[in-house]
Amino acid sequence: MKTPTFVLALFFLALAAHNGNAYDPSPLQDFCVAFDDPKDMLFVNGRFCKNPELVKAEDFFFSGINIPGNTDNAVGSNVTAVFVDNLPGLNTLGVSLARIDFAPYGLNPPHTHPRASEILFVAEGTLYVGFVSSNQDGNRLFTKVLNKGDVFVFPIGMIHFQFNIGKTPALAFAGLGSQNPGVITIANAVFGSNPPINPDVLAKAFMLENVENNNISLTEFSEDHNDWENDS
């Protein structure tokens, strides 16, 4: 009777290992520095690999993550991304980084990373963060108020956000499990698509006639941070 159980366990372990490599596959070489010139190069993970003999330390280096981003914009936040586009040595390594600056009451709007989970570390300030589970899980909202030194994880593909509920600037750093996690900002994608989605479709989908008279300023919410969290 033990043999079928053992075989079943091996099957699930193999399945888990396969799923673990479903996004950024494990590299089969020490590195594959992204390169724009296709001549005599190897194509891996959507990028051409630089000849290993020409690779330099600068290919694995990025400077400027210490520089605050400009938050003078409509949402009051700025993301400084360190992805494979500006750090070629990340190619095939399955990781990336982002700095997120927030003005007082600044928002990193609801968005999703289709190819990566995200771990967020708060370096300064107080953030209200959360994510929404899938339709299959009932679209449950998980939120938490984070203070300096706190960490929160957003599962892969889930819609999530960060909002500075403090009166001073805030700063966070995010690690992502992909060299190129992708970013889909929900409002931009739905209301700013090219060409535009038919307004009748949007009006019906978002039931706009029911909410157009219920606008609430973000700063009108209680400043008691405990009131921000849900019970999930």
TrEMBL record:
Residues 63-214 form the Cupin type-1 domain. It comes from the Eukaryota. PROSITE patterns: GERMIN. Disulfide bonds join C32-C49. Mn(2+) binds at H111, H113, E118, H160. The keyword Electron transport does not apply. Residues 1-22 form the signal peptide. Pfam families: Cupin_1 (PF00190). Gene3D superfamilies: Jelly Rolls. It is found in: Secreted, Extracellular space, Apoplast. Its main location: secreted. Keywords: Apoplast, Disulfide bond, Glycoprotein, Manganese, Metal-binding, Secreted, Signal. Oxalate binds at N108, H113, E118. GO terms for cellular component: apoplast. One of its GO terms (molecular function) is manganese ion binding. SMART domains: Cupin_1 (SM00835). Coiled coil: none annotated. May play a role in plant defense. Probably has no oxalate oxidase activity even if the active site is conserved. Belongs to the germin family. This is Germin-like protein. It comes from Cannabis sativa. The lineage of its organism: Eukaryota, Viridiplantae, Streptophyta, Embryophyta, Tracheophyta.
